[in-house]
Amino acid sequence: MTARIEIIDDDPAVRESLTLVLEAGGHHVCAADAGDAGLVLARDFRPDIILTDIIMPGCEGIQTILMLKAEHPQIRIIAMSGGGRTGNRDYLELAQEMGADAALEKPFDEDALLEAIRAFL
């Protein structure tokens, strides 16, 4: 099954690699480099699933998740984080408490990503 998937991550290499994997899986993909840009993009692209980083400059991931769920409660959100400079993995647990439907700890492999996507299709 094909999904419309939005990626929100400030790292261009992460956006590029996730886009390649998801498009190879037959999904329609768009990407934003920050939470505020991701919110605007979600209004136009109307994704089924959003993958969002947690630690980003500006509108960070937890705030992005809260705003996305308030505006688009039907969208499934997968939070991603490696803990940033602090190495704190509690961000993913907090993301789920704030509305993320699933969480992936970076780095994750292609199979883990595709399994998380399939769970929502």
Structure description:
Helix 1 (12-24) links the parallel strand 1 and strand 2. This protein has a five-stranded parallel β-sheet, with helices on both faces. Helices cover 44% and strands 21% of the residues. It has one domain: Response regulator (Rossmann fold). It is globular, with a radius of gyration of 13 Å. It is an alpha/beta fold and 121 residues long.
Total E-strand runs: 5
Q: What share of residues is helical?
A: 40-55%
The named CATH superfamily: Response regulator
State the helix count.
5
Give the helices and strands as they follow along the chain: EHEHEHEHEH
Termini separation: 7 Å
CATH architectural designation: 3-Layer(aba) Sandwich
Poorly predicted spans: none
- Biggest sheet: strand arrangement: 2-1-3-4-5
Shape call: globular
| Structural class by SSE content | alpha/beta
Query: Which class in CATH terms?
Result: Alpha Beta
Query: The CATH topology, please?
Result: Rossmann fold
Mean of the pLDDT scores?
Answer: 92
Largest sheet descriptor: 5 strands, parallel
Could you tell me the radius of gyration in angstroms? Answer: 13 Å
Tally of individual domains = 1
Strand content: 15-25%
